[in-house]
Write a structure and sequence with these properties.
The chain is an alpha+beta fold. The protein folds into 3 domains: about 5-245, Rossmann fold (3-Layer(aba) Sandwich); about 260-310 and about 425-475, Sandwich (Jelly Rolls), CATH 2.60.120.260; about 315-420, no CATH class. Helix content is about 25%, strand content about 25%. The strands form 4 sheets. Strands 6, 7, 8, 9, 17, 18 and 19 form a 7-stranded antiparallel sheet that branches. Strands 2-1-3-4-5 form a 5-stranded parallel sheet, sandwiched between helices. α3 (about 75-90) packs across α8 (about 230-240) and α4 (about 105-115) packs parallel to α5 (about 135-150). The longest helix has 23 residues, at about 175-195.
């Protein structure tokens, strides 16, 4: 049972705010007061916010945002934040995804990030994870974001939790309550440290919620639907404490660091032309995009990076997230590596034997181009015959998911995934270009290169001029 005063307050809050307010009820909701110096909010995500704020009907800037973390990140508050961005910046060409996975702490997400996070290459990552502070995995993920992408990062400190061993109206000084609080404070301390060291925005959700409870005479359980996950009020508070950080302020001082993303026009002095019509550009970074000029749509251009076709670079391929387990919705396994140069193809893992009591799971892997590529055991490292599929022991989640729901393996169950390219060997200037949406004219030539100097060469096919308007170069700072 909630305290009587808390119950009355939540009832009045729901009546006032309606989550969100209806047109018939003009009363504003009771919003939390953000914790911290609001004048500095957004200062570390200004590239993303600038793209949003400067979008117009004539120039719709493309912006990619990724929510990543665990089940709390999949709760409805993220949809409120995404909807708020779309409402405030209606002209932005927004792509917003949530790839959070319930129950996956830092030690597991560091694996799934290999197919979920870095290939997506967002402009902004909104991140929170419970576990992994003590092992350093959370910090490793955030550092890898900064090393492998130019994404800005917004970290949000934890919502409030309550231990299952203590009744909702129990003593807030109970050792189990204090232990849970210490765990959440450790996440907060880590995020504020990383905010300074790695130039990440930090939304102090934890302090904002604590202040809100004190102001309105509530208790922690009033924000939860169990011991961890926020209820309607909790989701409302998280969203309202994250939103103020998503703002643009042109008066923020320019950073002293080199720009993360640089644009070079076709006519820039660094772009060299030769008599055969080819273009040559030396750049430093790990990704390069080309924005097509409106002339010659459909024309073809051969691409070379450092004198080689991009398809020759092993780092420019990745295995996508595998299809889910039979139940519980996690990926069938949490990481796929490779030892050999990949091909763009589809993969299937067919279960040959599954015995939950004996913890047996044997499978056969087949590629659409590679063909039958070996048989594996989930408790042993699997290296396919071609070397194109490598799965470490402990990565499979099928047996776990079946035990979790006390179910048996469906007879027709298959695991599928793809090997995808982060490059093009031949750039085809896009057809159907929308002059207001640059994304319809933009193609990534190579993504995932070593973050250093490279040379790009574009050769026109059949003597046509290369239809480039500009290049966009991405250079991670760490």
């Amino acid at each position: 049972m909630l305290p009587f005063r808390s119950t009355l307050f939540i009832a009045s809050l729901l009546a006032v705010s309606s989550f969100p307010i209806s047109a018939e009820d003009p009363k504003p909701p009771i919003r939390p007061v953000p914790a911290g110096d609001t004048s500095s909010f957004g200062s570390k995500i200004q590239r993303t916010m600038g793209l949003l704020a400067t979008s117009t009907a004539e120039r719709r800037n493309p912006v990619k945002i990724l929510f990543y973390g665990q089940s709390v990140t999949r709760n409805p508050w993220w949809e409120d934040v995404a909807g708020d961005l779309r409402s405030r910046f209606p002209h932005a060409d927004l792509e917003i995804e949530n790839r959070a996975i319930g129950g996956y702490g830092g030690p597991v997400l560091i694996n799934t990030a290999e197919f979920d996070l870095y290939p997506f290459y967002p402009d902004l990552v909104i991140f929170h994870v419970w576990a992994g502070v003590e092992t350093g995995h959370q910090e490793k993920i955030i550092r890898r974001i900064r090393e492998r992408t130019t994404a800005e990062v917004l970290l949000w400190t934890s919502n409030l939790r309550w231990p299952s061993s203590v009744p909702p109206e129990g003593d807030p000084q109970h050792p189990d309550v204090l232990a849970k609080d210490d765990q959440d404070q450790a996440i907060s301390d880590l995020y504020f440290r990383l905010g300074k060291e790695l130039h990440c925005e930090v939304a102090d959700v934890r302090t904002g919620m604590q202040n809100y409870l004190k102001t309105h005479g509530l208790v922690v359980k009033d924000t939860l639907r169990d011991t961890v996950h926020p209820n309607e009020l909790g989701n409302f508070l998280i969203a309202e404490l994250v939103k103020p950080h998503l703002r643009y302020d042109p008066n923020f001082p320019a950073t002293s660091r080199q720009p993360l993303v640089e644009e070079i026009s076709r006519d820039h002095e660094s772009v060299k032309r030769t008599d055969d019509g080819s273009l040559h550009l030396t750049f430093t970074g790990n990704r390069i995009d080309v924005v097509a000029a409106p002339d010659n749509p459909g024309s073809k251009t051969r691409v070379l990076i450092d004198g080689k076709a991009p398809s020759a670079f092993p780092e420019l391929y990745y295995h996508s997230r595998p299809s889910p387990t039979p139940v519980a919705g996690r990926p069938a396994f949490n990481r796929i590596d490779h030892h050999s140069l990949l091909l763009v193809e589809n993969w299937t893992a067919r279960i040959l034997e599954c015995d939950l009591e004996k913890d047996i799971l044997r499978y056969e892997v087949t590629g659409s181009k590679t063909g039958p590529d070996g048989i594996g055991d989930h408790k042993e490292k699997f290296v396919s015959k071609s070397g194109r599929v490598v799965i470490d022991p402990g990565m499979w989640m099928v047996n776990w998911s079946l035990r979790y729901r006390n179910e048996t393996l469906p007879p027709d169950y298959l695991v599928t995934w793809e090997t995808k390219p982060l490059f093009v060997d031949t750039w085809i200037s896009p057809e159907g270009q929308d002059p207001t949406r640059e994304s319809t004219r933009t193609v990534t030539l190579a993504q995932g290169l070593g973050n250093g100097p490279h040379t790009l060469t574009l050769f026109p096919v059949k003597g046509k001029e290369v239809p480039v308007e500009k290049f966009r170069i991405y250079r991670p700072q760490w």
